[in-house]
Design goal:
The structure is a homodimer. Helices cover 82% and strands 0% of the residues of chain A. At the A-B interface, helix 2, helix 3, helix 4, helix 5 and helix 6 of A face helix 2, helix 3, helix 4, helix 5 and helix 6 of B.
């Protein structure tokens, strides 16, 4: 892995590499957690009068969604590790058995950046003398792969799942409090719009997009999903 | 962008770069589409007798999920493009204004692969003479970013959303056919287990993990989510 050097004037890159992965997992889980249970509950309130069935469906959805996304994230993390390892072994193998071909590959890649063979030769020869460094170089440069941290998969899955639950309970809370579905819907819409905007805004500041724009976009997704779900559920049940 | 050279004996890499993005989008949409509506419907069938409310909730969920995931995928794609462009402008700016510092950065990165300053100098000087190539090199090597295709965002969002709908209708179909929820559940479990295994198997062959293992893992996620949702819904409604 190349050392990561940062200028103080590049705060977003520093952010990108330090808090990046946990934030990314929270964003993944919470984006869907805020949106889908919200839209499902809103949709059902277009079809039923009592909020009890909405709470049951909503909690079932939150459980299902958090397990699906959490376990999905865990397995994706594990498969990243396996993918990296198998590609790494392949690189090592090719460097041992097909060294000239691998050297040509690096030459061609560097030619893509306008470097001549004469300019590239010292680097390629130097890498060829150290197979491990050569393999690291190819992983990054030919395949664009970053070494994943093995312990990350479990943490990533748990973070995504928990964020989904937290996100999902926000739109559902009013239906737990109010017996009539339409009252639950009203409060759910109000607090979820605020939550979606806040979430989008914070997400925007972390990812480097414009915060207000990100807030509105996140609101739009949630509202559109909820509105269409409402119309569909009302059409089916009428 | 470096030219991508492939050996015939590296079929998985070729796959990775050609069909990769559409497959990835279908996998993202269908994994959740098969799992969450399945688990929600199974959960509700632990709480209600008639399948009509399950169909309403299921379709509302499919609509909500496909919009949330599809629009989410679209916006993520768009923000990738914006992120790449803003980082690229920053690199160009830094190369123009802080050339020596950027050259040092490349030197340090290459030192991480065991290259000496003498070995790296020809490449660094050559890149420094061509700002565009230098910026491309830094994007790939310092930041690990690949230039995203601008038109991909829309296609990606549509693919994810459509895959979610297709996936979601499979577990829901039996509830549309059978009036009694427990009959719908039985058939839903049967066809969804088959669908999850098939999906996981095909996904495994595309991503290079072991196909059978991938099939079982996908089944496990869906079944676990459905079982827990069933238990939760039954506990709430009793």
């Amino acid at each position: 892995m190349p050392p990561k050097t940062h200028l103080p004037k590049r705060p977003h890159i520093e952010k990108h590499f330090t808090s990046g992965e946990v934030v990314r997992d929270i964003v993944i889980g919470m984006a869907d957690g805020l949106t889908v249970p919200f839209a499902l509950a809103a949709g059902l309130s277009g079809a039923v009068e009592s909020s009890s069935i909405i709470v049951t469906a909503g909690l079932a959805e939150i459980v299902a969604g958090s397990i699906a996304m959490g376990l999905g994230g865990y397995l994706a993390g594990k498969s990243d590790v396996e993918h990296y390892d198998s590609e790494y072994k392949r690189e090592i193998y090719e460097i041992e058995k097909l060294l000239d071909h691998e050297k040509d590959e690096v030459m061609e890649i560097l030619e893509g950046y306008g470097l001549t063979r004469t300019e590239s030769t010292p680097i390629v020869d130097s890498l060829a003398a150290r197979p491990k460094d050569f393999a690291d170089f190819m992983m990054r440069f030919e395949l664009g792969l970053e070494k994943p941290e093995p312990k990350r998969a479990m943490r990533s899955g748990a973070t995504i799942g928990a964020a989904y639950i937290v996100g999902g309970l926000i739109p559902l809370a009013p239906y737990i409090i109010f017996v009539q579905a339409h009252r639950g819907l009203l409060w759910s819409v109000l607090i979820t719009i605020v939550a979606l905007f806040t979430f989008g805004y914070v997400k925007g500041t972390f990812t480097g997009t414009k915060a207000v724009k990100s807030g509105f976009q996140t609101c739009l997704i949630g509202s559109l999903a909820a509105a269409v779900a409402f119309v569909i559920a009302r059409l089916i049940s009428s």
